[in-house]
């Protein structure tokens, strides 16, 4: 294992120290491992809190800032943050309008966010949770009952963040968040495994001539292993299950998101986007917006995922609204 | 070699097709392999043209847009574009105020851009070239006489782009560009090699327990190979030669840029940024701005580079000016 780290046990805290140094516009609570908006809590605005295991950067800490999250809790690599962290984040961003918890559907995250919500309620903070479960690959998985939450989480954090920034009430922000999860679907694949620093060994073995279709963002098994295939076939293996799961024709078009798993260069992601766009065109799905790049990653895993989200007038407007975070920024 | 590609010979053109699909605000000339600003040529504005071998994305095509480049020419992977491409880009962005060529110091690029400038002059377009050579690692290299052009190129494209956007004359934009190159220095390192698709084999061999200090962005040899080391020692091996080459104390602070080579996750890049920031603080160098992420890459190579740039009031203002490109965006 060669990595740009010091002691494996310090990876997360040292990366957060670097984030704090690089982003003075954020406030990083190093002992609690929480990334806050610099001006949190914003009075009268619904607060958005997310979090999860580290190793998926820029998600979630890189999505903190005006127009997106108010705080993100960082767990150890691929390990849920603890309820106390989530509680501190929730209380810290409550500007009097309540707090939305954005939770990816993994057993540990769901359980800990539930506990944090109860603790916050006891302190008088209203919390509404929304759980993402957009991964069509598998029904249950290594760390999940039901579908896993993956790429839609990124889009949801942007869209619900924009709704909160407009001054909407907690129920309205939560409605946007649930709609995004309900109308978004994802599927991923891996060319290689990744290595969790504290483990020191690849999470799984993948022969040089095979790829894993439907892989999870922690290297959880997918649907099947197939021989390494050209990008256009890989694109079909990702897009077809998504289109089979939900009708993406009609509507005001889709947001097409080709995500890098961490180790795959942008050159290949754009090439994949071209293949995905071709399939969508042939399938009568109109693309209204796109996003290409590594946004929800699995350390240095090579591979990609595809996420489609049905858009409507309101979601389009919320997508285009200004956002200012380390990982996603426009308009400001 | 496992990659998200189809036929290796089609990688660049298929990636450009994907870019065209993902970025309708750009105009991609697929036969000529040029990425243009959608509104090029901009009347009365100095045009900025860069380009080089592919495989360094988002540089250069991802830096095309208002506030940065007007056009970028894509060569084959790690291979210079040809003079005819550069000529078409130059003529295509000339809004009557002349064109700046931003050229990384590699023999093929320098020669071809020189030829293109002569051809453009024959067509009545005034061209001023600026060559970047900020890499302190080695004096001459596999593809270079003199120092190589690396990370400063990204910063220069932003800063000169902002100067052009303000309506300055060609000589004034070129002066900004030269100043950036003169006051910026870089050094890179690799944990792993990368594989050029058409070669199918890693560019170089690097044992599991060694790293290459001073590596070039095409995998050219660096200063030395050393045993794999903790991030804080790697940071010293990169920052010390930079500080030994140019005085970065005083001035209005520096822009500190920790760049990912392509295969290294953001978690590690932020950790490295923390180490770099510590060294700079101890060395009396004040950081005024920072940039962390994969901006000038070498396919899927794991590793990073550090670039420091001396800032002054004017460069600070130009850095903060709005920019709207796929790879770098703020303010619009």
Kindly describe this structure.
Two copies of one chain form a homodimer. Chain A has 332 residues and is an alpha/beta fold. The first copy, chain A, has two domains: 12-183, Rossmann fold (3-Layer(aba) Sandwich), CATH 3.40.50; 184-323, Hypothetical Protein Tm841, Chain: A,domain 3 (2-Layer Sandwich). In chain A, 32% of the residues lie in helices and 23% in strands. The first copy, chain A, has eight helices and 14 strands. In chain A, the strands form three sheets. Chain A has a six-stranded mixed beta sheet, with helices on both faces. Chain A has a six-stranded mixed beta sheet with strand order 9-8-7-12-10-11. In chain A, strand 13 and strand 14 form a beta hairpin. The first copy, chain A, starts with 10 loop residues before the first helix and ends with a strand. The model of chain A has no long low-confidence stretch (mean pLDDT 97). At the A-B interface, helix 1, helix 6, helix 7, strand 11 and strand 14 of A face helix 1, helix 6, helix 7, strand 11 and strand 14 of B.
Produce a short descriptive summary.
The structure is a homodimer of 332-residue chains. Chain A is an alpha/beta fold. Helices cover 32% and strands 23% of the residues of chain A.
How many strand units of chain A? 14
State the oligomer. Answer: homodimer
CATH superfamily of the largest domain in chain A: Dihydroxyacetone kinase, domain 1
Number of helices of chain A: 8
Question: Could you name the CATH topology of the largest domain in chain A?
Answer: Rossmann fold
**Largest interface by residue count?**
A-B, 65 and 65 residues
Largest sheet of chain A: 6 strands, mixed
* CATH architecture tag of the largest domain in chain A: 3-Layer(aba) Sandwich
Give the class of chain A from helix and strand content and strand pairing.
alpha/beta
Radius of gyration of chain A from CA coordinates: 19 Å
Regions of chain A with pLDDT < 50 over 5+ consecutive residues?
Answer: none
Order of strands across the widest beta sheet of chain A? Answer: 1-2-4-3-5-6
Kindly estimate the percentage of residues of chain A that lie in beta strands according to DSSP: 15-25%
Q: How many discrete domains of chain A?
A: 2
Q: CATH class of the largest domain in chain A, anyone?
A: Alpha Beta
Dominant shape of chain A:
globular
In whole angstroms, how far apart are the ends of chain A?
40 Å
Task: Give the % helix of chain A.
Answer: 25-40%
How would you spell out the order of helices and strands of chain A? Answer: HEEEEHEHEHHEEEHEHEEHEE
